[in-house]
Design goal:
With about 400 residues, the chain is mainly alpha-helical. It folds into three domains: about 90 residues, DNA polymerase, domain 1 (Orthogonal Bundle); about 100 residues; about 180 residues, Intergrase catalytic core (hpI Integrase, Chain A, Orthogonal Bundle). It is built from 18 helices and three strands. Strands 1-2-3 form a three-stranded antiparallel β-sheet, with no helix packed on it. The protein starts with a helix and ends in a 6-residue tail after the last helix. The relative contact order is 0.07.
Length: about 400
């Protein structure tokens, strides 16, 4: 296509990516890359926009070959929106592969440190997954960009006050995400201190505090709130049927988000009314009973809403929009739960509002119905009933029975 046609096509590409669920960070990268590519084409007098123009752009502006199969996360993030646009133009669809590690470019004064993070810190960690590596690279890029924009252009001048300011800027993130930020930053600062780049360690900036698991009161939703969430779902649509099944699995079986995201059709034993899985967290097998509250949404989704997927024919949850690929990211299901809570008018307040909160709620409601802790442990797939006893912290009805009278 010519440059004028491509320029008018770009807004549709971005609209399609948003509709397919890409996050704000990825969309910001896509807008920046496509805008810079258009500017490059105008400056260089490119008349025909195609793979050759993309290859020249990547090579001349960023120094990498666009056709390489193995790229750094930043390089893959630059290439992705360009190839998406070309593929969408040619076929009307595109191969949707999320890039959790996609990051924007860091300021020039921090590029040397950033390159070392990718190659020496993260690149040498053979035992962690690619997704974990990408998350660590993304956090490092976000941190280095923040301190550089705050005036720290030489990493040796970094102070703990700068680290505190960065952590203070992280508003709107869930507590678990903030925990990941602190853990990755502790590791990054320890690494930089070990190389003599900075004068304090990550352990000094983020002391490790040990506490008992029983010191935390878990988030909990009442049976009425859970029922309102279920009722808020419009199951007349394909997306609604998917949402209803996901919420029902969390609310009535207590399955973890990672296990739900990995479910396959072959895991379902329809005759025995069981879902047979190996838990991702413990690697232990678990037979999950299918109650009526899950059986009917499950059958309805499989029969009437689940798209066929050539790439993932056995995966249970498939994206509603084409290209139909598996929904394998647990965070996707967290967004589903949050949307259903919002639709039901439930205010989480200080409570967590993801799939795990529904797991906690199921256990607490069972405990409130006088179900033995050992039976709840079996349902949740805990190795020991001691793990399940943490739910006693939110079982207020039973806790009140233990309260002593206050003498008058």
């Amino acid at each position: 296509m010519d440059i004028r046609e491509f320029e008018s096509f770009v807004p549709g590409v971005l609209e399609r990516m948003r509709a397919d669920g890409y996050g704000e960070a990825t969309m910001g990268t896509a807008e920046w890359v496509l805008g810079w590519f258009l500017e490059y084409c105008r400056e260089e007098g490119v008349g025909d926009v195609g793979e050759a123009a993309v290859a020249d752009f990547c090579a001349r502006r960023f120094g990498f070959a666009a056709r390489e199969s193995k790229l750094l996360p930043t390089q893959a993030a630059i290439r992705k929106p360009l190839l998406t646009a070309l593929e969408l133009y040619r076929t009307g669809s595109y191969c949707k592969t999320h890039q959790p590690g996609a990051v924007h470019d860091v300021p020039e004064c921090m590029r040397g440190v950033y390159s070392l993070v990718i190659t020496d810190l993260v690149g040498e960690q053979r035992e962690i997954s690619r997704k974990t590596k990408e998350r660590k690279v993304w956090i490092a890029a976000k941190f280095l960009t923040f301190v550089a924009e705050a005036g720290v252009c030489d990493i040796s001048a970094l102070r703990m006050e700068d680290v505190d300011a960065f952590v203070g800027s992280l508003t709107g993130y869930a507590p678990e995400t903030l925990r990941c930020f602190r853990g990755s930053l502790r590791e990054l600062l320890d690494w930089m201190a070990g190389l003599g780049m900075i004068g304090f360690s990550g352990r000094m900036a983020f002391p490790v505090l040990r506490k008992s698991n029983r010191s935390t009161i878990l988030s909990y939703y009442t049976k009425d709130e859970v029922e309102r969430m279920i009722a808020s779902v419009d199951n007349s649509t394909r997306r609604g049927k998917l949402y209803l099944l996901a919420i029902s699995l969390f609310a009535f079986t207590g399955m973890r988000a990672g296990d739900v995201a990995s479910l396959r059709l072959s895991d379902i034993d329809w005759d025995a009314r069981l879902i047979r899985i190996v838990q991702q967290k413990t690697k232990e097998p678990l037979d999950v009973p299918i109650p009526d509250e899950v059986l009917y949404p499950l059958a309805d989704y499989v029969r009437n809403a689940r798209p066929d997927s050539a790439s993932d024919p056995d995966h249970l949850f498939i994206t509603v929009n084409a290209p139909h690929t598996r929904m394998a990211c647990p965070s996707t299901f967290g967004r589903i739960v949050a949307r259903c809570m919002e639709a039901a008018g439930i205010e989480p307040g200080n409570r967590h509002h993801g799939p795990h909160s529904l797991r906690h709620s199921l256990a607490t409601n069972m405990l409130g119905a006088d179900v033995p802790v050992s039976a709840i442990s079996d349902v949740l797939g805990h190795d020991s009933a001691k793990t399940t006893e943490i739910y006693l912290t939110v079982d207020l009805a039973h806790a009140r029975k233990l309260a002593l009278e206050v003498p008058l």
